Amino acid sequence: GKNWIKAMILTASLFPFLHFAIGFALNTIAIFYGSLAAIPFGTMVVMFVLWAFISFPLVLLGTVVGRNWSGAPNNPCRVKTIPRPIPERKWYLTPSVISLMGGLLPFGSIFIEMYFVFTSFWNYKVYYVYGFMLLVFVILLIVTICVTIVGTYFLLNAENYHWQWTSFFSAASTALYVYLYSIYYYHVKTKMSGFFQTSFYFGYTLMFCLGLGILCGKHSLALMIAIHCNV
């Protein structure tokens, strides 16, 4: 589209800078408490240099190549210049409800595994069933894609053609339920207390959930775009 420069900048900087902001806040807290968990300043500079001279140029290169490779949009049907008004629909067919409900089944598929992941990370238990984790990850992707297909079908059946962001958020909402589960795990399964431990627990969990949400949303949206372009 016309805003490809803005989209490129957001793609290259939004996710890394969100993690940088969270990491910087946690690092400040660690320095204040004199903890060994504080990240050295030199390491932070190296990470910024890697982003500035490797990650960002690769995103720029991919954007330029993608625009020149794809060419003009090849719509499978004629597109009107005037958007058609979306009719009234029932409350459970709204994009917000579909997005929130879309993450329930994917979270249910990884619910048990998340307990062992949190236990190994926060209770310092050894995790060794990586093959089972790979299987759960594949199941997560399959369930997420299936749920997104059903949610997008209901949205299109209600004559709502704004399906792109709904397809993304219906899959990305899995991370919301993982974060809610982390709150339960913190209060029931851990003995953490104090501002330092609490901030590190929820800060790093938030970083993990952001990555999980983008991962699930990206795969589901990519598949839905492929389906709509070939059907």
Automatic annotation (TrEMBL):
Source taxon at top rank: Eukaryota
Gene Ontology cellular component annotations, sorted alphabetically: endosome membrane; Golgi membrane
Keywords of this entry: Endosome, Membrane, Signal, Transmembrane, Transmembrane helix
Cell compartment(s), UniProt: Endosome membrane; Golgi apparatus membrane
Swiss-Prot/TrEMBL GO biological process terms: protein localization to membrane
Transmembrane segments: 7-33, 45-70, 91-118, 130-156, 168-187, 199-217
UniProt family annotation: Belongs to the nonaspanin (TM9SF) (TC 9.A.2) family.
Protein name in UniProt: Transmembrane 9 superfamily member
Source species of the chain: Aegilops tauschii subsp. strangulata (Goatgrass)
